[in-house]
Amino acid sequence: MRDLPVLTGDAVADAATDWPIAEHRVLGRGRLNTFVSDTVVTPDGATMVRDYLTHTGAVGVIALDEQERVVVVRQYRHPVGFKLIEPPAGLLDADGESWLTAAQRELAEEARLRADDWRTLVDYMTSPGCLQESIRVFLARGLADAPRPEGFVLEGEEADMEVCLVPLDDLVAAVFAGRVQNPTLVVGVLAAHAALRSGREADLRAPDAPWDARGAKAARDQELGELEAP
Amino acid sequence: MRDLPVLTGDAVADAATDWPIAEHRVLGRGRLNTFVSDTVVTPDGATMVRDYLTHTGAVGVIALDEQERVVVVRQYRHPVGFKLIEPPAGLLDADGESWLTAAQRELAEEARLRADDWRTLVDYMTSPGCLQESIRVFLARGLADAPRPEGFVLEGEEADMEVCLVPLDDLVAAVFAGRVQNPTLVVGVLAAHAALRSGREADLRAPDAPWDARGAKAARDQELGELEAP
User: Which region ranges are annotated with the description Disordered (chains A, B) (predicted)?
Assistant: First the structure.
């Protein structure tokens, strides 16, 4: 095998980058997302067209009890035609709400639980070739019952949702067997497993650690807003 | 904390499920995906509207050399405004091509490499609330140089792509530091780390192991095709 450049340490890092948009079109508007098409100018001066769905971003919670069992819900996901085993999660949909507050709200709404100890477990983008979404996954420990937030009503697929506990090791086995497929569950379970089994738990980032994807999203949203303005 | 039902073993499994579609609309058509809106009938007889992007599905490859270094590319991803560190990956876009053949093609096209040993590392759905996409990630070992497939030309953001090697442990550290965010990289690196460090490598599934998400997709595609027919 030929020699390839080797990247190590802090150089192993994504880079916020924004190639110029020469033309922007709206292909369709949904309730939460807009399907758009941008003609982008590449560094060598060529152009390429990229269609993608805008997205507000989301948070998810791997909530672990004292026996290393993970709180999950079963939820019907129409786009993929599956009822999936998932961690509590939701959209960043309330103006000005912090990421941590959003995660705490989702844990209370979906599982009627609260947690004492919150860490940033992992951040990821869900499908960066066609979707603007980025997700922060928290690790939450020190669980206790909590009331469902006032005024919150379970609707649609959430009305059909069941809350369960699953031992972390059973979830890892289910990931490798291909029996669970939700991205935040797969990412969160593998990250929690690595953190707990490799002694990295104390190194996990604070819940309010910087999240660069949010800055890139805000810049893009402003740019698209200006391009769509009459 | 109150008692919750506990799920263990093989019961930890997603379930293919298809709630009836009462109404189907096309919101917008892109080059590769269609943005659709389905009115879905829930088990209690209510209806809910769900907007989502159709997707052909994809494969990715965690290719490990003999020093446990992972083959990565850096690629501009316009929807998120980042140049990301990613494993070779691509759409299941060729008629009748097997998932494994698609992954082997992507490894040759993007990195000019081939591999002797292929396993199914992990399957996941990227954003099951708004996107139909499912991805199979392979673990590939026994790397050697390969010619780029005949007729293949790097275009757009791929023309700007760099191929590198990154030690697996440096990638795990980058995941926990929030420096890398591509979903197939995050999932694949954490899964490879778990497989190699927990003695699960010999248990990894065969490259042609069943992949239930593909059956659910085929059924949905047929249903949508019939609903869209004049």
Answer: 206-230
Are A28 and A66 in a shared domain? Answer: no
Residues B164-197: tens digit of each pLDDT: 999 999 999 999 999 999 999 999 999 999 999 9
Q: Which residues fall within 8 angstroms of residue A16, CB to CB, at 6 or more apart?
A: A212, A215, A216, B81, B82
d(CA A47, CA B50): 33
pLDDT at B93: 74
How far, in Å, CA of A188 to CA of A38, rounded?
32
Q: Which one of A12, A78, A204 has the shortest CB-CB distance to B38?
A: A78
Chain B interface includes A9 (CB < 8 A): yes
- How far apart CA B131 and CA A17 sit, in angstroms, is 24
| Within-domain flag for B219 | no
Nearest chain B residue to A190 by CA distance is: B190
**In degrees rounded to 5, what are phi and psi of residue B58?**
-155, 165
Q: What's the first-to-final CA gap in chain A, in angstroms?
A: 55
CATH of residue B109: 3.90.79.10
Containing domain of residue A112, as a range? 58-203
Task: Tell me if A3 is assigned to some domain.
Answer: no
Q: Which pLDDT score, from 0 to 100, does residue A198 have?
A: 86
CB contacts under 8 A, B 62-101 vs A, are: 65, 69, 71-72, 76-85
Taking the alpha carbons of A116, A120, A126, A130 in that order, is the dihedral positive or negative? positive
Q: What is the mean pLDDT of residues A173-185?
A: 98
Say whether A142 sits in a helix, a strand or coil.
Answer: strand
Residue appearing with tokens 């052909």: B56
Q: Of residues B145 and B160, which shows the higher confidence score?
A: B145
d(CA A53, CA B28): 11
Give the phi and the psi of residue A29 in degrees, each rounded to 5.
Answer: -115, 130
Least confident of A39-53, A140-154, B25-39, B53-67: A140-154
pLDDT at A160 over 70: no
CB-based contact (8 Å) between A168 and chain B?
no
- Please say whether the beta carbons of A138 and A118 come within 8 A: yes
The whole-angstrom separation of Cα B230 and Cα B221 is: 16
Shared-domain flag, residues A99 and A176:
yes
Active-site entry in B68, B157, B158, B223: B158
Eight-state DSSP code of residue A112: S
Q: What is the gyration radius of the CA atoms in chain B, in angstroms?
A: 20
